[in-house]
User: Fold this.
Amino acid sequence: MTDSVKFNRACVIGVGLIGSSLAHAMRTAALVDEIIGVDRDADVIARAQKLGVIDKGETDLVKGVKGADLIIVSTPVGAIGAVAAELASAADDGALIIDVGSVKGVALDAAKAMPERVHFVPCHPVAGTEQSGPEAGFASLFHDRWCILTPAPRDDDAYKAAVDKAAALWSGVGAKVEIMTAEHHDLALAVTSHLPHLIAFTIVGAADDVESVAAGEIVKYSAGGFRDFTRIAASDPVMWRDVFLNNKEAVLEVLGRFSEELAVMQRAIRWGDGQALEDAFTRVRGLRKAIVEAGQESAAPNFGRDDKPR
Ligand SMILES: NC(=O)c1ccc[n+]([C@@H]2O[C@H](COP(=O)([O-])OP(=O)(O)OC[C@H]3O[C@@H](n4cnc5c(N)ncnc54)[C@H](O)[C@@H]3O)[C@@H](O)[C@H]2O)c1
Ligand SMILES: O=C(O)C(=O)C[C@]1(C(=O)O)C=C[C@@H](O)C=C1
Assistant:
């Protein structure tokens, strides 16, 4: 395992929340000399440059990645395949390519399709917020958070070294690194991230549909639980559209189980079965305790981080 790592030129493709956070974090940790931003939106490039997130910017990927020894694909998941296909010929020999997508099956397919001269290591930092765009990024986003790597099945030494380098990069920005298969990642994250987002989008939508409760009342009485759901439901629609389209099977599997549990609750409420409700709530309360003890809970609303712009 490589202990420390340093890049000459990083190219961040998709300079939004995660791309700009990684740019800030790499700069803070002195892991890179120069950062080039590539985004399909020229306005994002202009804003990122003004904020000092990137040194130079480009809307043309082929020009932007020239000379980069590190390429970070931080676009929505639905764009990873097409971006990787361009990188197959545009990236310099020996370049390390990572993505940060929330679904790993699609990134693994892209990594497998890469020529051997470049090294694509799929990554997912399990850290984020409901905000998007270059203004939302901050250097400490990845501190003490997990970053999951799902490497391609390549056993040549150059690829193994690239996986080590990717791990060292994430450690260098404060993350804890874990390696697993893309399939396992996508099922685990369907449970811990994708289904919760789907539920939040649905709950907030359902509240909006209850015509006899005025919108003003929803705002007025949103002090606790519902307010937390509205934060999650404010997440980027394009990002989440792509997550659900690209992790269809795992999400449908956990959604099926959720629906069964919900039906059990519905039945207990209908029949006044207090014991069933109490037993179910007691069982899940233990999970929250375990998460807090493992230090994985975040103190909303600003995650306890001083440098997070709000
Ligand atoms: N937001 C989170 O909490 C979070 C956490 C971990 C991982 N992720 C993953 O990180 C990735 C980026 O998410 P984000 O929240 O930073 O999104 P974002 O909307 O803040 O930024 C995405 C950027 O990508 C650009 N883009 C889109 N398609 C492009 C293309 N084909 N070529 C170049 N640029 C393109 C957009 O213009 C935008 O600036 C997603 O894959 C997401 O699943 C997000
Ligand atoms: O805290 C939040 O706002 C998040 O939604 C972050 C979160 C998550 O579900 O935990 C969202 C998507 C990612 O792929 C990783 C992290």
